[in-house]
Write a structure and sequence with these properties.
By secondary structure, the protein is an alpha/beta fold. Helix content is 37%, strand content 16%.
């Protein structure tokens, strides 16, 4: 199979779909890889590193999309990229379609088959291709939140760890999954007081054991959420409903009761955000204020630490990329129900129910898609 790796074009996105090591693995399996010139510059991998791994270098994105049978990316294709996709071509990347009707419309019009990293599952009910970026984003959430709390950034002027004689800051994490766990770990490391809210009692028990009593865990009732948020210096939104739009858990009226200059970091922004006042921002202009509350809503947070993120992502995606290349997407998805769960679009059809529901579109299931492709 000929696999194409274009340069990412989202604002300040420095990751790349495949590392030179991953390219070498695919070439070892008998495949060809076409990498756009400069695609790996953001992770310190020049074109020579890719050619040394066995890839060919294409001068531009159009050449990659025109020739490749499968496109491997990181972020969702931008409109110009969607228009380069064609019927029968396979796209393997993050999609986050639920809050993005334009992307969905363009992918459907292209006739391509699109498998989304964020809905591929594993035998334990996890999301193995989302997990590495969730780990990065969770750790970054506390880091960027601490910076946003500085007075020069528009925040309250609070040091999360405090100092002797001055109490530490209060961090509230909404959601106890991968993002929330890593955000809490970083906040504890800085010396903050940390509260995690979640609706799963078994998960709250796990977190209590994991952190050995160093966090406060609360069941996420409406009242508990309101009380925690209004007393927080930093709130991290770490809610995930796989494939679906994130629920709006913090309303604008809550902001008016919060401490002026408090910060909210919405890691769920890729799925539309879990704060009513969230709107996607970029690394160019990462924050804005609503009612005196600083919002950080960058939709590609891990892109800021591109090298770490790319290698972490490739460690997770490579086995699936190899399966798709070795077997073709139809057989690979037929053989592996977890990879099949990643199928979001095929030949003009939405194939993931939560995406279809969020976009109010009709859908077919993945098995029907495989039958259509036979």
């Amino acid at each position: 199979m000929l696999i194409g790796v274009p340069k990412e074009i989202k604002v300040h996105e420095y990751r790349v779909g495949m590392t030179p090591d991953a390219v070498r693995e695919l070439v070892h399996h008998g495949h060809q890889v076409l990498v756009q010139a400069g695609a790996g510059a953001g992770i310190g991998a020049d074109d020579a590193a890719y050619t040394g791994a066995g890839a060919r270098i294409a001068p531009d994105a159009a050449s990659v999309y025109a020739q490749a049978e499968m496109i491997v990316k990181v972020k969702e294709p931008q409109p110009d990229e969607c228009r380069m996709l064609r019927s029968g071509q396979l796209l393997f990347t993050y999609l986050h379609l639920a809050p993005d009707p334009e992307q969905a419309r363009l992918l459907l019009a292209s006739g391509c088959t699109a498998i989304a990293y964020e809905t591929v599952t594993d035998a334990h009910g996890g999301l193995p291709l989302l997990a590495p970026m969730s780990e990065v984003a969770g750790r970054m959430a506390t880091q960027v939140g601490a910076v946003a709390l500085q007075k020069a950034s528009g925040g309250r002027g609070v040091l999360l760890g405090g100092v002797p004689g001055v109490p530490p800051g209060d961090v509230v994490v909404i959601g106890g999954g991968t993002v929330g766990t890593h955000a809490a770990r970083m906040a504890i490391g800085l010396g903050a007081r940390v509260t995690i809210l979640d609706k799963s009692l078994p998960r709250l028990r796990q977190l209590d054991d994991l952190f050995d009593g160093r966090v406060t865990t609360e069941y996420a009732t409406v009242h508990a959420l309101e009380r925690a948020v209004v007393n927080a210096d930093l709130v991290v939104g770490a809610v995930l409903v796989p494939g679906a739009a994130a629920p709006k858990l913090v309303r604008r009226e809550h902001l008016r009761a919060m401490r002026p200059g408090a910060v909210i970091v919405d890691v769920a922004i890729d799925q539309g955000g879990c704060f009513e006042t969230s709107r996607a921002t970029t690394h160019d202009a990462p924050t804005y204020q609503v009612d005196g509350i600083v919002h950080y809503c960058v939709a590609n947070m891990p892109g800021a630490v591109a090298r770490t993120s790319t290698y972490a992502l490739n460690n997770a995606t490579l086995p699936f990329t190899l399966a798709l290349a070795d077997k073709g997407w139809r057989r690979a998805c037929a053989d592996d129900p977890h990879l099949r769960a990643g199928l979001n679009v095929h030949s003009g059809h939405i194939t993931y129910p939560a995406v279809a529901q969020a976009l109010q579109l009709a859908s077919i299931d993945a098995q029907q898609a495989l039958a259509l492709a036979a």
